[in-house]
Amino acid sequence: MAEVDRTEKITINLGLVDLGLIDLLVEEGFYSNRTDFIRAAIRRQLDSRAATVDDTVQRRALRALKRRNVTVLEDSCAEITASQVVLTRGTRVACDAAVIALGAFAPPWLRDTGLALDERGFVATGPTLQSSSHPEVFAAGDVSTRTHEPHPKSGVYAVRAGAPLALNLRRFLAGGPLEPWRPQSRALNLLACGERYAIASWGGWSAEGAWVWRWKDRIDRDFVRLHSL
Ligand SMILES: Cc1cc2nc3c(=O)[nH]c(=O)nc-3n(C[C@H](O)[C@H](O)[C@H](O)COP(=O)(O)OP(=O)(O)OC[C@H]3O[C@@H](n4cnc5c(N)ncnc54)[C@H](O)[C@@H]3O)c2cc1C
């Protein structure tokens, strides 16, 4: 990993006209000063490259699968029989045991509860984890979506919602003011690839190797130790 020089100076090649335009935007109140404009411009550039970053992680994962002789078929699965997996375009793949890994999905019974749901059927909540339609109902973790600021459905966010949820439940019962929950905007993703090898990604950065696996292993073991009785 490259060392980050904390005193690194960056030269930005701006002409007088560019500076004039920036100053105009500052005067009009869009930015508080020139630095604020430059920071916002860099951040926006990073946001616009987010898909490329995701692709980079996907390419790393596909390379890791290829190294382990795993063939990826991008077609969806239409049917699983006793001896085959049938794909939507008709291909039949011989299969002894199918392992199914799904993303999060909302329990269908939520539709009958009368609670406000998001477009995928998860409980819609506000910043205090209260249902958007029923303030006496609280929801956190995969089953809910903070509709004003959705975050990925993953264990990282589900675990961290626990403490604010407990706090707000207690305050609600005691009639006290509730605290909005502001989760982190990014999470570290560590993907184990087998054979003590893993891929890491954090915002715009990604890396892979045996050292990433050791890092993941240490985090996982510490987490389990923390919750062991
Ligand atoms: C294979 C796999 C790998 C994953 N790996 C990662 C990872 O590496 N990192 C990460 O951050 N996240 C990972 N996730 C996602 C993570 O597991 C979930 O985001 C997290 O468990 C969500 O926590 P939760 O408490 O909201 O829901 P859950 O963990 O799903 O807990 C909900 C509980 O409610 C119970 N329940 C459901 N319906 C009812 C009912 N009607 N009555 C009573 N009980 C009910 C369920 O049985 C379950 O015990 C993974 C998920 C899967 C499936």
Task: Characterize the structure shown.
With 229 residues, the protein is of the alpha+beta class. Among the domains are: 63-101, no CATH class; 108-174, 3-Layer(bba) Sandwich (FAD/NAD(P)-binding domain), CATH 3.50.50; 189-226, no CATH class. 36% of the residues lie in helices and 14% in strands. It is built from 5 helices and 8 strands; from the N terminus they run H-H-H-E-E-E-E-E-H-E-E-E-H. The protein has helices spanning 16-27, 34-48, 50-67, 155-174, 210-226, and strands at 77-80, 84-87, 92-94, 123-125, 144-146, 189-192, 198-202, 205-209. Strands 1-2-3 form a 3-stranded antiparallel β-sheet, with no helix packed on it. Strand 1 (77-80) and strand 2 form a beta hairpin. The longest helix has 20 residues, at 155-174. The radius of gyration is 24 Å and the shape is extended. The two termini are 37 Å apart. It binds flavin-adenine dinucleotide. Flavin-adenine dinucleotide binds next to helix 4. The site of flavin-adenine dinucleotide has 10 residues, from helix 4.
